[in-house]
Inverse folding.
């Protein structure tokens, strides 16, 4: 039985238990994304490009339809995230659509997190990653997640925002637990929710302390680091857009939550994908050794296209609507439905992407939907494009990398997040 049939069968069994159905669909589409994604999504695009289930869940697989969903926040809203964010971080940009708060907070953060910082963000993470890799050379191997990406990202973020966690492990755990509740807990499991709320309460208190302490130093006229926190506090005395203390807190919390788990996840999957593609990995390493960061980036994002961390983005349908109107796949969607916009499938849609099954490093950036599409396109996209290849370069520029022997050399998970992938230096 194909996955689409399994999904339909689950819908029949679960009837109108929407939470359960959304969770089941998420699991099954996840299975589809992990195993035989090419074939399964190709079949879906060909025979069943819009799967609409009676319990109020719809999956769209064509590039065109995914774009239609993600580019129209009035019909396909981010309301699924909104209430969760409200509870955990306070209102945050991904959880609200085209309202004044979105534009205000976005503009205020744009003043403090600027493009001018990108070279520094890249060079700092490169240096840290380089040191972390060098420290493991004698052991002959390094774990890409726990010994490289996690500590490098935590250190880069802590310095950039000026709001380090109590320690690395705690900040990583807080960010992952909250991320899981906001974006992965589609079935609304109470244990996941409660854990995230408890962590968020601790993190908020911790940030309040840091904000308060920094304010006192600012008032005392001390010399302060030019980090995001100092900038946001300084803007409070200037005109709009700026943020009051609580808004500073929930924006920083939201940003770090979006930052830590994603880049680490991406690097682990990229390395895992390249380890399966010997020739491409060899060329990616050659590019790194030649100092060609742009080419390293092209290998990274192309590897991500085959092994992304999001197979779909979810949207809520507030009022009855129609997808793909005027086509033979036109589908009515009822108010209250959840739509899975399958970005993984969209990036492999032969109607929109040139030779989608080929691994190519000369693709236009518009072929990629790793960072979403439309209004909610990832705020951190340019940061990732700077930091991820820098970290990859530090890893790739040394000797040939191979999987460590045994289980350590396989991508391992803790819950939904990669927790380990050990590679050995083949000197
Ligand atoms: C490889 C790393 C990353 C990936 C794959 C990624 C992916 C995404 C995707 C797919 C979305 C759209 C979600 C949707 O439409 O439902 C998104 C939104 C967002 N991301 Fe990222 N992200 C990454 C890193 C980051 C980083 C480093 C930050 C923080 C600087 C960040 C902050 C955000 C924010 C704030 C939004 C919401 C934007 C808005 O609503 O306008 N992300 N990200």
């Amino acid at each position: 039985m194909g996955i689409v049939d399994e999904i339909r069968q689950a819908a029949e069994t679960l009837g109108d238990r929407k939470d359960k159905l959304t969770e089941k669909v998420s699991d099954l589409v996840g299975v589809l994304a992990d195993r035989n994604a090419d074939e399964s999504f190709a079949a879906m695009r060909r025979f069943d490009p819009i799967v609409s289930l009676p319990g109020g869940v719809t999956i769209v697989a064509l590039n065109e339809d995914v774009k239609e969903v993600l580019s129209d926040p009035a019909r396909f809203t981010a309301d699924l995230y909104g209430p969760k964010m409200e509870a955990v971080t306070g209102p945050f940009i991904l959880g609200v659509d085209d309202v004044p708060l979105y534009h205000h907070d976005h503009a205020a953060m744009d003043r403090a997190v600027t493009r001018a910082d990108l070279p520094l963000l890249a060079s700092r993470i490169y240096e840290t990653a380089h040191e972390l890799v060098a420290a493991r050379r004698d052991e002959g191997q390094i774990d890409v997640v726990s010994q490289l990406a996690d500590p490098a990202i935590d250190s880069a973020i802590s310095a950039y925002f000026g709001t380090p966690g109590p320690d690395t492990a705690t900040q990583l755990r807080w960010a992952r637990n909250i991320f899981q509740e906001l974006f992965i807990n589609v079935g609304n499991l109470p244990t996941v929710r409660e854990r995230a709320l408890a962590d968020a309460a601790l993190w908020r208190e911790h940030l309040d302390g840091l904000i308060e302490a920094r304010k006192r130093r600012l008032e005392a006229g001390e010399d302060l680091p030019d980090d995001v926190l100092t900038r946001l506090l300084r803007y409070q005395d200037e005109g709009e857009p700026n943020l009051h203390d609580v808004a500073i807190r929930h924006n920083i919390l939201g940003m770090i939550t979006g930052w830590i788990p994603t880049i680490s996840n991406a690097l682990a999957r990229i390395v895992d994908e390249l380890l399966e593609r010997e020739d491409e990995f060899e060329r990616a390493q050659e590019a790194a050794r030649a100092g060609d960061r742009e080419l390293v980036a092209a290998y990274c994002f192309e590897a991500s296209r085959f092994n992304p961390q999001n197979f779909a983005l979810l949207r809520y349908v507030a009022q009855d609507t129609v997808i793909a109107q005027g086509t033979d796949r036109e589908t009515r969607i009822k108010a209250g439905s959840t739509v899975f916009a399958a970005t993984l499938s969209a990036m492999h849609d032969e109607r929109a992407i040139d030779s989608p099954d080929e691994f190519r490093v000369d693709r236009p950036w518009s072929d990629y939907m790793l960072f979403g599409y439309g209004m909610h396109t990832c705020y951190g996209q340019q940061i990732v494009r700077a930091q991820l290849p820098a970290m990859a370069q530090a890893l790739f520029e040394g000797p040939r990398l191979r999987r460590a022997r045994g289980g350590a050399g396989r991508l391992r998970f803790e819950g939904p997040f990669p927790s380990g992938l050990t590679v050995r230096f083949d000197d």
